[in-house]
UniProtKB/TrEMBL annotation:
InterPro entries: Aha1 (IPR036338), AHSA1-like_N (IPR015310), ASHA1/2-like_C (IPR013538), START-like_dom_sf (IPR023393)
Limits of the Activator of Hsp90 ATPase AHSA1-like N-terminal domain: 29-161
UniProt-recorded name of the protein: Activator of 90 kDa heat shock protein ATPase homolog 1
Family to which the UniProt record says this protein belongs: Belongs to the AHA1 family.
GO biological process, alphabetically ordered: protein folding
Function: Acts as a co-chaperone of HSP90AA1. Activates the ATPase activity of HSP90AA1 leading to increase in its chaperone activity. Competes with the inhibitory co-chaperone FNIP1 for binding to HSP90AA1, thereby providing a reciprocal regulatory mechanism for chaperoning of client proteins. Competes with the inhibitory co-chaperone TSC1 for binding to HSP90AA1, thereby providing a reciprocal regulatory mechanism for chaperoning of client proteins.
Subcellular location per the Swiss-Prot or TrEMBL entry: Cytoplasm, Cytosol; Endoplasmic reticulum
SUPFAM superfamilies assigned: Activator of Hsp90 ATPase, Aha1, Bet v1-like
GO CC terms: cytosol; endoplasmic reticulum
GO molecular function, one term: Hsp90 protein binding
Length: 341
């Protein structure tokens, strides 16, 4: 046990008379059932599939039984949700004939990956056969799966704000990938001509670089963890700051008020993310190459990071930044490091 006044600031309790649940550090729970119900209804009613045969769309959420909650246990967020869902859909053929059917999702829960969720599509009783059933089973189901993914992602971002409140001396601390040196924070008083001259001298100067390797394990699937790194809302959640993330090859990203910027050079779903990556304080125009590789390890995900072209003077800072503010930040925000026995 840490000495009085030392250790994790979330354990500092000397200013509290009761010394209980400081900054939500111990077990807290938030009911997400009503929010989930409204979110799911909104997502399902937006499902619409269309081809040359006609149009299929979800017209009603006829059954939505279940519950959802988020628990914070010593700084780790744990998500519970379980839903039994029935939807009504309507198909309109290209000739104007209407058909009715149902979609059943009996086992949406935190115990199953979205890809494992059972989704059954059928026509209503006495409805004649129609090619629109195939459209709903294929394109319609794809959109329903996408809606379920969005629900799970937003549950883990929008609804978790304030669940963990680490503070130091009563003031909330703002995480950043690495501290910016004071010299970099001071505004220059040089004249524009002098500033431009300094910039022109720095361009093209060779700097010594190095290679870094990191490895960590997350209690989630490769698919889920892959999406954490490329989904703007999820990036904003674990960095606790605005972000811009264009999740395409060649797409740009900007994190932590521009402290980190770069570009995706390769995106292989569930397997690998490669990017050009830099700190704002690095020499102008210099990017490192960061490659994240995801491997399924018996229900967990092992991530291997390889970084090339890191300025030699920034080696330790970069390694610490990725380990502490990316990997640990993701575990703390989404509960991917928590084990319950």
């Amino acid at each position: 046990m840490a000495k009085w006044g030392e250790g994790d600031p979330r354990w500092i309790v000397e200013q509290r008379a009761d010394a209980t649940n400081v900054n939500n550090w111990h077990w807290t729970e938030r009911d997400a059932s009503n929010w989930s119900s409204e979110k799911l209804k909104t997502l399902f009613l937006a499902v619409r599939a269309e081809n040359a045969d006609g149009v299929c769309e979800v017209t009603e959420v006829s059954k939505l039984d279940g519950e959802a909650s988020i628990n914070n246990r010593k700084g780790k967020l744990i998500f519970f949700y379980e839903w039994n869902i029935k939807l009504a859909w309507t198909g309109t053929s290209s000739s104007g004939v209407k058909y009715k059917g149902y979609v059943e999702i009996p086992n949406l829960s935190d115990e199953n990956d979205v890809d494992e969720v059972e989704i059954t599509v059928s026509l209503a009783k006495d409805e004649p056969d129609t090619t629109l059933l195939a459209l709903m089973k294929q394109e319609g189901v794809k959109q329903i799966v996408s809606a379920l993914r969005t629900y799970v992602s937003t549950l883990k971002t929008e609804f978790t704000q304030g669940m963990i409140l680490p503070t130091v001396n009563g003031e909330q601390s703002d995480p950043a990938p690495c501290p910016i040196r004071k010299a970099e924070e001071r505004k220059t008083t040089q004249k524009p001509a002098a500033s431009n001259a300094l910039k022109s001298k720095s361009v093209g100067v060779k700097i010594p670089t190095c290679k870094i390797n990191l490895k960590d394990t997350f209690l989630t699937s490769p698919d889920e963890l892959y999406r954490v790194f490329i989904t703007q809302e999820m990036v904003q959640a674990f960095t606790h700051s605005p972000a811009v993330v264009e999740a395409d090859k060649g797409g740009k990203f900007q994190l932590l008020d521009g402290t980190v910027t770069g570009e995706f050079t390769e995106l292989i779903s569930e397997k690998q993310i490669a990017m050009k990556w830099r700190f704002k304080s690095w020499p102008e125009g210099h990017f490192a190459t960061i490659t994240l590789t995801f491997a399924d390890k018996f229900g967990e995900t092992e991530v291997h990071l390889e970084g090339r072209g890191i300025p030699a003077s920034e080696e330790e800072r970069t390694k610490e930044g990725w380990q502490r503010y990316y990997f640990e930040g993701i575990k703390q925000t989404f509960g991917y490091g928590a084990r319950l026995f």
